[in-house]
Automatic annotation (TrEMBL):
Binding-site positions, ATP: G26, K27, G28, G29, V30, G31, K32, S33
Gene Ontology MF terms in the entry: 4 iron, 4 sulfur cluster binding; ATP binding; ATP hydrolysis activity; ATP-dependent FeS chaperone activity; metal ion binding
Coiled-coil ranges (or none): none
Quaternary structure and partners: Homodimer.
Organism classification: Bacteria, Pseudomonadati, Pseudomonadota, Alphaproteobacteria, Hyphomicrobiales
Family: In the N-terminal section; belongs to the MIP18 family. Belongs to the Mrp/NBP35 ATP-binding proteins family.
Function recorded in the entry: Binds and transfers iron-sulfur (Fe-S) clusters to target apoproteins. Can hydrolyze ATP.
UniProt KW Ribosomal protein keyword: no
Protein name: Iron-sulfur cluster carrier protein
Listed GO biological process terms: iron-sulfur cluster assembly
Keywords of this entry: ATP-binding, Hydrolase, Iron, Iron-sulfur, Metal-binding, Nucleotide-binding
Length: 259
């Protein structure tokens, strides 16, 4: 799309949006997107107006998680109207390409698509915009962290040592660009056996809390490994909306409260 107006300074805020927070992880598959969507819905359940910007160029998952298909409308060929899912305003890299199309965009194209979604999206008034970041700590992530005016970042990790080493790199990346760490979430923190009711720490337990204490950032909460979380996510009905009074929704609302 042609840009008629000059590009605003990279760190300028977005009018109408109160705060932009990133949900990030040191590597893929730890439940970053699942956390991002349920955190956004938890913030909404706590009374805020919330949007979500799915910036995960490698595997945009908001269309599936929020059961949204189609493409955002454009106004005068440039202004994008975010889609809506469960009351959230949503923009996703996934709306711009087919699910089967591999993401082989070069860095500058990714940044310009992201900037367009962020700054030329018709977000309206939002208290919070949650950005689902691409996993990892490479150039794309660093540039995004620099280009989006972030109020802070939430880091998602599983309890294993290896995942925590990657999470630590994520923490360091945000610190490097002066983005405050809002806290760490431990996902897949434990498993409650549906038959015997006892707790199994499949990937270990408590590593993220220890790490948070060690570096002096808030620990936001523990989310169990649970079939219902996976099924509701994959089914496009995240657990905070499909079971709002359940124990999992409560955990996510508490994380949203602390973040
Ligand atoms: P990431 O964004 O870090 O790549 P996802 O959020 O896409 O990870 O999660 C990867 C897979 O793990 C998905 O199938 C998701 O449904 C599942 N998952 C994530 N968190 C949990 C959890 N707490 N319990 C069960 N399954 C989970």
């Amino acid at each position: 799309a042609a840009h008629a107006k000059p590009t605003p300074p990279a760190k300028a805020g977005v009018p109408g949006i109160g705060a932009i927070i990133a949900v990030a992880s040191g590597k893929g598959g730890v439940g970053k997107s699942t956390t991002a969507v349920n955190l956004a819905l938890g913030l909404q359940a706590n009374g805020l107006k919330v949007g979500i910007l799915d910036a995960d160029i490698y595997g945009p998952s908001m269309p599936r998680l929020l059961h949204i298909s189609g493409r955002p409308q454009t106004v005068s060929g440039r202004i994008l109207k975010p889609m809506e899912g469960y009351g959230l305003k949503v923009m996703s890299m996934g709306f711009l390409v087919d699910e089967e199309t591999p993401m082989i965009w070069r860095g500058p194209m990714v940044i310009s698509a992201l900037t367009q979604m962020l700054r030329e999206g018709e977000w309206g008034e939002l208290d919070v915009l949650v950005v689902d970041m691409p996993p990892g700590t490479g150039d794309a992530q660093l540039t995004m962290a620099q280009n989006v005016p972030l109020a802070g970042a939430v880091i998602v990790s599983t309890p294993q040592d290896l995942a925590l080493i990657d999470a630590r790199k994520g923490l360091a990346m945000f610190r490097k660009v002066d983005v405050p760490i809002l806290g760490i979430v431990e996902n897949m923190s434990y498993f409650i056996c549906p038959n015997c009711g006892s707790q199994h720490d499949i990937f270990g337990h408590g590593g993220a809390r220890t790490e948070a204490e060690r570096i002096g950032v808030p620990f936001l909460g523990e989310v169990p490994l649970d079939m219902a979380i996976r099924e509701t996510s994959d089914g496009g009905t995240p657990i905070v909306v499909s079971d709002p009074d359940g124990a999992h929704a409560k955990i996510y609302r508490e994380i949203a409260d602390k973040a």
